[in-house]
Amino acid sequence: MRTSTLAITMMACLALSGGELPAAHAADGQAAMQMDTGAGNGTTAAAGSKSPTAGGEAMFATIHKLAGRWVAQLPNGKPIVDTFQPFASGTYMLHEEWVDGKQITASVFYMVGSQLWVDHFCDYLNQPRYTAKPSADPSIIDLKFRSATDLDAHPRHFHSTVWHLIDATHMTQDWEVLGGPKGRVMVHLNFVRTGTSP
């Protein structure tokens, strides 16, 4: 499903206003699913984690290093193109996925306090939201499911993902898919940077 960058940015701003869609949209039948991330209400860092502020900021800096164009091969053999570009003076990072020249998903990375949050606008027709797990290694971005909208109508979703920035030109992504007819499915992608701009 194609979505304009402006629409994605607007949805990201809506998410920042409280993490949920406005009541008018909820009244239209959009359902939200909340899940415990092990960090209380999902807005504070996990108890006992070491330097969560440094962890979140360091991981966001890692995401900024991805700016540009990356290509991987999907399990069906088709290439998938990931693009990353900062916006709003670098306070957000827009991630888009393209297959056959068509945009299929978009994600917005941003900081909330000391945490790195991500809102994902998916071709599965739902909108998962993630919080990055604090890590001593900022080259690993471990995104844990926090909540989602439209899971009642479209239960198949990307439940979690772990990204590893190996070096300046190589990155892996591991995606966990839940709610589909095959049950839990893992998708591993090996990306290579092919350009410094989207």
Describe this structure in words.
There is one protein chain. The longest helix is centred in the N-terminal third of the chain and has 14 residues, at 52-65. The chain has a 10-stranded antiparallel beta barrel. The chain has 198 residues and is α+β, with helices and mostly antiparallel strands. It has 3 helices and 11 strands. The protein has helices at residues 5-16, 23-27, 52-65, and strands at 32-34, 68-73, 79-87, 92-99, 102-112, 115-121, 127-132, 140-149, 157-167, 170-180, 183-195.
Secondary structure topology:
Blueprint (H helix, E strand, L loop, with lengths): L4 H12 L6 H5 L4 E3 L17 H14 L2 E6 L5 E9 L4 E8 L2 E11 L2 E7 L5 E6 L7 E10 L7 E11 L2 E11 L2 E13 L3
Antiparallel strand pairs: 1-8, 2-3, 2-11, 3-4, 4-5, 5-6, 6-7, 7-8, 8-9, 9-10, 10-11
